[in-house]
Amino acid sequence: MRYISTRGSAPVLDFEQVTLAGLAADGGLYVPEAWPRFSTEDIAGMAGLSYVETAVRVMTPFVGDSLSEDELRRLCEQAYQGRFAHAAVTPLVQLDHRNWLLELFHGPTLAFKDVALQLLGLLFERFLTGSKDHLTVVGATSGDTGSAAIDALAGREGVDIFMLHPRGRVSDVQRRQMTTVLAPNVHNIAIDGNFDQAQALVKAMFNDPGFSRKYALSAVNSINWARLMAQIVYYFYAAVRLGAPEREIAFSVPTGNFGDVFAGYVAAQMGLPVAKLIVATNINDILHRALSSGDYSVGEVTPTAAPSMDIQVSSNFERLLFDLGGRDGNALLAQMKAFESERKLQLTNAQREGAAGLFTSCRIEPEAMAQTLAWAHGEAGQIIDPHTAIGLAAARTVELDSNIPVVTLATAHPAKFGDAVERATGVRPALPARVGDLFDREERYDVVHATFDDVTAHIADLATPRS
Fold first, then answer.
1. What mean pLDDT, rounded, does the chain reach?
2. Residue ranges per domain, the chain?
3. CATH for 92-109+226-425, options being 2.60.120.260, 3.40.190.10, 3.40.50.1100, 3.20.20.20
4. Disulfide: which of 25, 29, 164, 290 matches 10 by Cβ 3.0-4.6 Å?
5. Catalytic residues
6. Could you tell me which of 30, 19, 27 has the C-alpha nearest to residue 63?
7. Which positions carry N6-(pyridoxal phosphate)lysine (predicted)?
8. Which own/partner contact pairs does 290-295 have at CB distance under 8 Å and 24+ positions apart?
9. How far apart are CA 250 and CA 398, in angstroms?
10. Between β-strands 295-297 and 344-346, what pairing exists: parallel, antiparallel or unpaired?
11. With a cut of 70, which residues of the chain have pLDDT below it?
C-alpha cells in the first residue's frame, strides 16, 4: 500500500512512513493510492468476529509490508483488550424500531478518539524502535483528541507530545483529562484563541521549513492517516451486526472536523453497503452548508454546549474534495490555496454531485439538541451527550427508507458534558469509577499567546531536536 498527498507533490510513502509523518510535506493530507475493496463474501466473513479480529481484517490492506498480520493482531490486542470498559469495545444499543447507538466512549478517556489513538500510540512506539529520532508530536484539540492522545502517549519512550487547546472552550472534564496527566513527556498548552487557530498553528509548524527540519514532527489529529484507518473498523463491526452485506445501513455522525464521517466514506469505498452518511452539525455549520449548497466558507465560531463541534475549518474535508475531484492534486492545491487566502470556496459540480449520492447533512439548533437529550432519556432510557444528541436529532430528521436501520455514532460519555445533560434531562451523569477522582488530581499546563512565534518558542524550550 502506497500513500499519496492530496496536493500532489509530496513524496509517496508507505504505511510506516505516513504514520510517522502525519501531514504531507506539500501541506496536503495523505490518502491511499487506491481504495482496497472487499467482496460481499469478505464482509459476510466478518460475522461473529471479535472487535480485534474485525480490526485485523479491515486494516491489513492498509498496512502493507510495514507490519505482518501477527504484528498487527498483537497491537490490536494490546490497544483494545483491557483498555476498554466493554468487552465488545464499540457496542450497539437499540433505541427504537430503527435507531441505534454505536457507543464509542468505553475507552480510557471516554470518547471515540480512544479507538484510534490507543492504536496510534502503539504504532508510534513500534515504528520508533531502533530509531535515533525522538518524535515531537504536536496536536490541537477541541476537547477529546487531546485527552485520548495524551493517555495513549504518556510515558512512552522516544516521544514528546505538545497539545494545544483553546483556553476556556473545552469542558472541565475534557481539560482535566489532559492537564492532570503529569508524565514528563506530556506538555499541555492553553492558547488564548479558538480551536481553528490551534489547528492552524499546528499546520503552520509542519509547513515551516526551519521548524519542521529541526524536530521530527508527527501528528495525532485526524490529519494522520493511521487515525482514520482505525476508525473505519467500527463501521464494519456495526454494519455486519445489523445485517450487512445483505442489508444497507445508514450512519449519522456528529462531526466538526470531518474525520469520523470520512472514515465511513472510506468504508463505503471498500464495499460496505452504506445507504447514507448523515453529516450532523451544530450551528457551526460549515459542513452542512458545503454539502447542501456547495458553500464552504468560514464563519465565526460560536461556542455551544457541544464544544468538540465548534469548528469552522474541517481539515479532513480536503480528503473528500480530492477524491471526488478526480484525485487531481494540482487542481486541489489551487482550490485549497484559494480557500486559505480567501476563507471560502465553492465546490465544483463534480464534487457536489459525487457527495450527493452518499452524503446528506443536517444543522441542529440548540433547542433540538436539548429536546433530543430529553427524548433519549424519557423514551429510550438512555443518557447521551450533546454531540451524540446532535447526531441522533439528525438521524430522526432525515427521511430514509423505513427498512434501513440508522446508527448514530455516540462519540462521548455524557458525564463529560454533565451541565448540558442535566439541564435537558434533570439527571447529572456520573463519571465512571475509573476516572471518578478526576477533580481531585493536580493540573499542569501553560498559557501561551496564539501566535506562531510564541507557541514555537515555547515548544523549542522543551522539545528534543533531531539527532
1. 95
2. 92-109+226-425
3. 3.40.50.1100
4. 25
5. 113
6. 19
7. 113
8. 290/317, 290/347, 291/355, 291/359, 291/360, 291/361, 292/361, 294/346, 294/347, 294/351, 294/352, 295/344, 295/346
9. 11
10. antiparallel
11. none
